[in-house]
Design goal:
Layout (H helix, E strand, L loop, with lengths): L14 H4 L35 E4 L1 H4 L7 H13 L2 H4 L3 E3 L25 H11 L3 E7 L17 H11 L3 E5 L8 H15 L4 E4 L16 E3 L8 H11 L11 E3 L12 H13 L4 E3 L8 H7 L2 H7 L8 E4 L4 E7 L5 E7 L5 E6 L11 E5 L4 E5 L2 E6 L4 E7 L11 E5 L4 E3 L4 E9 L5 E9 L5 E4 L4 E5 L4 E9 L7 E12 L5 E13 L6 E3 L7 E3 L6 E2 L14 E3 L2 E3 L2 E5 L2 E6 L6 E8 L8 E8 L2 E10 L5 E6 L5 E7 L9 E10 L1
Parallel strand pairs: 1-2, 1-8, 2-3, 3-4, 4-5, 5-6, 6-7, 18-25
Antiparallel strand pairs: 9-10, 10-11, 11-16, 12-15, 13-14, 13-16, 17-19, 19-23, 20-22, 20-24, 21-23, 24-25, 26-38, 27-32, 28-31, 29-30, 31-38, 32-37, 33-36, 33-38, 34-35, 34-37
């Protein structure tokens, strides 16, 4: 519910408020009454949320804007049915903040906003229920909700509000954490738990406590609990939340789920590749799947992601295990999830900005030894056999989602074949670049009549320099083919699509075609001498909040809204302003020797922010700082990048989320 940079202003109120005095706005603060009903038994083993809840919440797309109203909510319910999302498992249509008037009525009851909900909440619930769906609602465990308009929270009104929700037919409560007067979190959330139980209506209880007091350790309180601050529609935010939620796997299970926040799929701040990763990773983590985009405006690509029933089945597996990290070196993540039928779901996730090979094995995933395994690609919807290796070349920010099983029907499927290149395609216009492709049989059975082709944009020259066919490939054998790729002289720098395509036949004669989309970067050779990095073109640039800025700080989410780069009072004219998680990469063409910079947390966020800086030369980390805070002066950082094709400047969040992580590469220079 909170912008990542403003949440701290909402979660604590002055001690005078806790004493019952007037708020700063002159509003009376309710007394915090002791529960008036007996507490519930210390367990939520009530049969609810036995799989992670699936549905919709309006906040990520509308917040408190005028688009949030009765017509929207009922329109989403219609689309759940019309677009097949109900059949895919989506059930809850949830209202977030701003559904009520700012003041209670004379009896202390909540009043729905008549402009937004002219027929009231019960009428909306009845409409949703008539579709075979369920309705969710929102309030906060404070005297006000999180919105600055000051809508009434439930602190001191828990039993009355819970009964009102039950009388309306509410099936799900999201309970936020703003304006909580400093009252103990467990006390506040347990009181509402007891109040919900006292209504006698089954209501899924979602604790939105932001992970501040480790709610995953309160096993008897909620059906799900937020583990982090709010997500935003950016790659850096999604990645930071992923890394905070993954270690909490032991706490998840049927009826008690880690909640890394709602989905951003379709909201426009990331690419479709990013969104497929987002959806895959939330599913392998057994996370609640709450759609956060306005489905009335959603693209076909968005529906294709949200309606992938094979990926959803991983999330909804009744065993209820959250996926765990098998490996993560170099941003090459393998996350495996045990399934009830004995199979393993696995996400091969590429955190980096260029394609990478990611590999694991059936044994590493916990499967028993077997002659062969069935490997199901959950995005391509095809099955193969593998001798045990599970591997793929995964595009930048991409995820290959698989399900691997030791079943006796593995030989009925064609062999899995892995396609890859030996390096990211970096091309200087007018100069032939040499590449080597590999087609490798991962299957227990041979791939026959194998052929491979590489194609580029119109006008490019792509030629093989060695054999592009093989009569057969046995297990673990590869067809390696050399290529020259030439972009025409004058081709502008930037990214261009290549396609690596292999065709082969299974022993049974089944024809298989496998395609690997690739990105070639047309680059300029780095200038000789020492240059400011902010004056050079980058290969790629990603920032956790807003774009990477040249010669200013990060600022906020808009381009060009930064300030002079300032570290501990020292102002720098040149440099890069970023926000964790961030990665900026440069082509150095094996012609450069050194990167230098003064690094630290920019002064524009006061005392907030914790970050760590890393410099990578190709796949090797060559310099790092450890965690830095705003209290520290700029730290000099120097890296030897001799012989590197690509240099990457990386900023991580210091392990505590990305709130206010404004980082500067001040006076960053490259020597070639």
């Amino acid at each position: 519910m909170r912008h990542p940079h403003t949440r701290t202003t909402r979660r604590r109120v002055a001690a005078a408020l806790a004493a019952g005095l007037l708020s700063a706005a002159g509003l009376a603060v309710p007394a915090i009454a002791a529960p008036t009903r007996p507490p519930a038994a210390p367990s939520l083993a009530d049969g609810l949320a036995l799989t992670p809840p699936m549905g919709f919440n309006n906040w990520n797309s509308t917040q408190c804007g005028p688009g949030f109203d009765e017509a929207m909510v009922e329109g989403i319910a219609d689309l759940f049915v019309d677009k097949g999302l109900k059949d895919a498992g989506y059930r809850y249509v949830n209202l977030d903040d701003c559904w009520a008037l700012p003041n209670r009525d004379a009896n202390g009851k909540l009043v729905p906003d008549p402009a937004r909900f002219p027929h009231g909440i019960k009428a909306v619930a009845d409409y949703v229920h008539a579709k075979g769906l369920k309705l969710g609602i929102y309030t906060s465990a404070g005297f006000r909700t999180c919105n600055s308009a000051g809508f009434p929270g439930a602190l001191g009104h828990e039993y009355s509000d819970a009964q009102q929700f039950a009388d309306w037919g509410v099936d799900y409560l999201k309970y936020d954490n703003c304006n909580n007067l400093g009252v103990d979190a467990q006390q506040r959330y347990r009181t509402m738990r007891d109040a919900l139980k006292a209504t006698g209506r089954p209501i899924v209880y979602s604790i939105c406590e932001w992970g501040e007091n480790k709610p995953w350790e309160w096993a008897d309180v909620g059906h799900l609990w937020r583990t982090t601050g709010d997500i935003s529609d950016s790659w850096g935010s999604m990645l930071s939340i992923l890394k905070q939620n993954l270690p909490l796997a032991p706490h998840a299970g049927p009826g008690h789920w880690n909640d890394p926040d709602m989905l951003e799929v379709g909201n426009g701040g990331m690419t479709d590749t990013d969104y497929r990763s987002h959806f895959s990773l939330w599913s392998v983590m057994a996370a609640p799947l709450l759609i956060g985009t306005d489905l009335r405006k959603a693209s076909p690509a968005t529906f294709d992601i949200l309606d992938n029933k094979e990926v959803i089945a991983v999330d909804q597996d009744p065993l209820g295990k959250q996926g765990t990290v098998v490996s993560s070196a170099g941003g090459r993540w393998v996350v495996g999830k045990e399934m009830k039928d004995g199979s393993r779901a696995v996400a091969l996730f590429n955190e980096s900005g260029s394609a990478q090979r990611i590999a694991t094995s059936a044994a590493a995933l916990g499967l028993p030894g077997a002659p062969g395994y069935t490997l199901r690609d959950l995005w391509q919807h095809r099955s193969y056999n593998t001798a045990g290796t599970v591997a793929a070349t995964v595009p930048a920010h991409g995820t290959v989602m698989l399900r691997v099983s030791a079943d006796t029907r593995w030989a009925a499927h064609p062999p899995a074949v892995e396609l890859g290149l030996d390096a990211s395609p970096l091309v200087e216009a007018g100069t032939p670049a040499t590449l080597t492709s590999a087609v490798t049989d991962l299957g227990r059975t041979p791939a026959r009549r194998v052929s491979v082709s590489l194609t580029g944009p119109h006008g490019w020259t792509v030629r093989p320099t060695s054999a592009a066919t093989a009569a057969a490939l046995g297990t673990g054998r590869s067809l390696r083919t050399g290529w020259t790729v030439t972009a025409p002289t004058g081709t502008p720098t930037g990214s261009y699509d290549l396609s690596l395509r292999a065709s082969y036949r299974s022993p049974a004669g089944e024809s298989v075609v496998s395609t690997l989309p690739l990105t070639a970067s047309v680059v300029l050779p780095p200038p000789a001498g020492t240059s400011h990095l902010s004056d050079l073109p980058w290969l790629s640039a990603a920032s956790g909040w807003g774009p990477v800025e040249r010669d200013t700080s990060n600022g906020e989410s808009a381009a060009g809204d930064g300030h002079p780069i300032t570290l501990n009072g020292v102002v720098y004219a040149k440099g890069l302003g970023v926000h964790a998680q961030s990665e900026v990469s440069y082509y150095t063409g094996k012609a450069c020797e050194k990167v230098t910079a003064d690094v630290g947390v920019d002064d524009e966020k006061g005392t907030k922010g914790t970050v760590a800086f890393e410099i990578w030369a190709d796949g090797t980390e060559v310099a790092s700082t450890g965690v830095l805070t705003n209290a520290q002066p700029a730290q000099p950082l120097t890296a030897d990048v001799t012989g590197a094709q690509v240099v990457r400047l990386v900023v991580t969040d210091g392990g505590d989320g990305i709130d206010s992580d404004h980082a500067d590469w001040a006076d960053a220079r490259l020597s070639c």
